Amino acid sequence: MVLYNSFSEMLNAANQAWYMYPGLSHGAYQCLHEHGTAEQKRLYLPKLVSGEWTGTMCLTEAHCGTDLGLLRSKAEPQADGSYKITGSKIFISAGEHDMAANILHLVLARLPDAPAGTKGISLFLVPKFIPAADGSVGARNAITCGAIEEKMGIHGNSTCQMNLDAATGWIIGQPNKGLNAMFVMMNAARLGVGMQSLGLTEVAYQNALVYAKDRVQMRSLSGVKAPNLPADPIIVHPDVRRMLLTAKAYAEGGRAFTSFVALQIDRELSHPDEGARKDAADLVTLLTPIVKAFITDNGWIATSEAMQVYGGHGYIAEWGMEQYVRDARINMIYEGTNTIQSLDLLGRKVLMDNGAKLKKFGALVQAFVEENGTDEAMSEFVTPLGELGGKLTKLTMEIGMKSFQNQDEVGAAAVPYLRVVGHLVYAYFFARMAKLALAKLDSGDGFYKAKLATARFYYARLLPETAMLIRQARSGAANLLDLEAELF
Amino acid sequence: MSQYVAPLRDMRFVLHELLQVESELKQLPQHAEIDLDTINQVLEEGGKFTSKVLFPLNHSGDREGCRLDAATHAVSTPKGFKEAYRQYVEAGWPALRSTAVRGCRWCCTTLSPKC
């Protein structure tokens, strides 16, 4: 996983819309691997692994996105153990295409006797072509694309409306437990969305950097830097550097963070020690909404800053920068909006277990702070890192107390809260990277000088946002809820 | 006009210097065979594939979009997408993801024949 993670960043940087076709197969693979029957695994997994077939996840319907409890698609059991599924799904990424011989749709629907709400949803495997026992592609199933959505970005990916007209499907996992099975896929997809924005951050940065060195406009405020040119390259200007460094810091911070999470997934799946597996699983659970929301919010900032470096040319399609901004925007929305991610973090993953998982990450920060607390050269990193850890603990307790009185306090604090935790995570990794860079500063390799400068920029210019975010998170629900809806 | 070069130097820094993945993965029986050279080789091959095959289709794919044939319900993807997918599958890349579950047999046999 840790190796795949790096490759996944490259795939998304090079072409997010293309990578979504095979990308969605991974969630289907994982879901079938964990919840499928032996026969389903035998028939479908090898085709997903080889890439011969691809997968999708069909959740959303016109009237239900975030709230899957409202879902209406129906599944009628048949005498042979299969189901006939009828309904209409929207926003299905890679729902129909010409790239693979078959498409395996994982579809949420209700059984006839299912209870209302989320406890009555089951998951079904609905292949585009029904395979024979030997895996050869058979009859066309009644699941078809009715329309392709017209959208802001990721135009290369077919986002489909899918119609199921008594399509043949097979249940995955237990009846009415579809969301459990689906969440395996959903967690994989949420990590994948974070990787999409990390890729976009990197590619936008690279192009802005080339442009900033090439484009000449105005002279440096401190005097001419390129006397042979009619003006100085714009990389001499402080604010152009701020834009570049913002994107660079978010790319490098995100790379360190997601590689760490991917390594924890490897440990969770295959560490011989049960305690180590549990610790890794807790960290992955805690950090998944931060990968999804923090990286995609930062990706939006970074692609926008990178476009800004181009001035007017950034807004012109030919230069390619506006595409990154458009593509990045969806990542904040799908697979659970970033608000949903923040509620998942604060409500389910922090407050519900009294901060136990958060303390596991906090222990890593604390150990680093203690280990390096007396190192003079590291104090510019260790001091603010330790302080932020303390402030986050206080903030968490404060919101937890308020939430006993009023659960809306969680919803009012969650978004800035997630960003504070995200910054604690990045501050931790930048401090660790700065330590490595300081140790190799005399090696003559400019990479380490650049790494240290990026860490310093991050601590000086991006991390201080936490002071404002903490004030916002502490400001309470009243400033959002006091005004009656009709007075808006 | 635009470009993408995989940030291999920074990736190696993160994997080897920051996270020391080689020794971390040695603790995991399924991944114990993987070594630093294999990791670097996979990264390098991944960089080539993404820069040379996928990146050139990014802008054109955005401009062209996908098309639905209303009569047959068939969807055509932008020019070049299908061929890139064929190359992706032929090179064995889809299996890299499932190595997380199945161990690193794929990257050892496919990209680094020595182990």
Structure write-up:
The complex is a heterodimer of chains A (about 500) and B (about 120). With about 500 residues, chain A is an alpha+beta fold. Chain A folds into three domains: about 35-170, Butyryl-CoA Dehydrogenase, subunit A, domain 2 (Beta Barrel); about 185-335, Butyryl-CoA Dehydrogenase, subunit A, domain 3 (Up-down Bundle); about 340-480, no CATH class. Chain A has helices at about 1-35, 40-50, 180-215, 240-270, 275-310, 320-330, 340-350, 355-370, 380-405, 410-440, 445-460, 465-475, 480; strands at about 55-60, 75, 85-95, 100-110, 120-125, 130, 135-140, 145-150, 160-170. In chain A, strands 1, 2, 3, 4, 5, 8 and 9 form a seven-stranded mixed β-sheet that branches. In chain A, strands 6-7 form a two-stranded antiparallel ribbon. In chain A, helix 4 (about 240-270) packs antiparallel against helix 5 (about 275-310), helix 5 packs antiparallel against helix 7 and helix 10 runs antiparallel to helix 11. Chain A starts with a helix and ends in a 7-residue tail after the last helix. The mean pLDDT of chain A is about 95. By secondary structure, chain B is mostly helical. Chain B has one domain (about 10-110). Chain B contains seven helices and two strands; from the N terminus they run H-H-H-H-E-E-H-H-H. Chain B has helices at about 10-20, 20-25, 35-55, 60-65, 80-90, 95-100, 105-110; strands at about 65-70, 75. Chain B has a two-stranded antiparallel ribbon with strand order 1-2. Chain B is elongated. At the A-B interface, helix 1, helix 2, strand 8, helix 3 and helix 4 of A face helix 1, helix 2, helix 3, helix 4 and strand 2 of B.
